[in-house]
């Protein structure tokens, strides 16, 4: 150890390469990954919605009972909610400056996104299994 | 500038006329938040389809109503804008198209593509409905 270190960070902190945010590029990268995934998923979803605009219960069930449609619909729900909560997190962090309000909004968005995504997945699974 | 220092003032949002690139930037966020709210309708649709024919008919009835169709139109326009502008963000993430002329050209491509896709979707949608 030299008497005048040029870097005040510990060797471990230096190796981790993370700043005071305790976070690297994971959030940014997952937002991009989900964005790329949503391009084909969204196009499939829009066409699916168009084809079932006036569909009755039986026609809708026939659609979701196809394994491909069920998998795509679950992917649409999960990836959409993941992308939505990631984006809303950034918006909340940028515009809400009171710490407890920011935290409350973040928790609400995370919990709600998780619960709604799960509800969508369960709904698709239920239709697919025919329970 | 009028602050006496000879240095430029930072733009004041209520006076400064936002360039189109900045308008599209904030619109990306606004449509993103709107689409996030729209996931409530997606959840209702899927859960209703899993619950009963009556619940699904109610959800389909709402979507097919005047207000529902207005929401769907807004949803599709917001979705296509967010999709097209999102692709442009991915191009920026790749480190390309930062020149002012490129940005201004891409503004027009994003707006044109989003409008064209929205109209195309509704033409096809109303034709098959």
CATH first level of chain A: Mainly Alpha
Reading off the top of the CATH hierarchy, the class of chain B is best stated as: Mainly Alpha
Tell me the number of helical segments of chain B per DSSP (H or I, 4 or more residues long).
4
The largest β sheet of chain B comes out as: none
- Which structural class matches the secondary elements of chain A? mainly alpha
CATH homologous superfamily name of chain B?
Fumarate reductase/succinate dehydrogenase, transmembrane subunit
> CATH topology of chain A, anyone?
3 helical TM bundles of succinate and fumarate reductases
- Compute the CA-based radius of gyration of chain A: 21 Å
Q: How far apart are the termini of chain A?
A: 68 Å
Count of discrete domains of chain A: 1
Provide the gyration radius of chain B in Å.
20 Å
**DSSP, total strands of chain A:** 0
Low-confidence stretches of chain A: none
Polypeptide structure, described:
The complex is a heterodimer of chains A (131) and B (129). The radius of gyration of chain A is 21 Å and the shape is elongated. In chain A, α2 packs across α4 and α4 runs antiparallel to α5. Chain A has one domain: Fumarate reductase/succinate dehydrogenase, transmembrane subunit (3 helical TM bundles of succinate and fumarate reductases, Up-down Bundle), CATH 1.20.1300.10. With 131 residues, chain A is an all-alpha fold. Chain A has five helices and no strands. Chain B is an all-alpha fold and 129 residues long. Chain B has a single domain, classed as 3 helical TM bundles of succinate and fumarate reductases, CATH 1.20.1300. Chain B contains four helices and no strands. The longest helix of chain B has 32 residues. The radius of gyration of chain B is 20 Å and the shape is elongated. The N and C termini of chain B lie far apart (59 Å). Chains A and B meet through α2, α3, α4 and α5 of A and α1, α2, α3 and α4 of B.
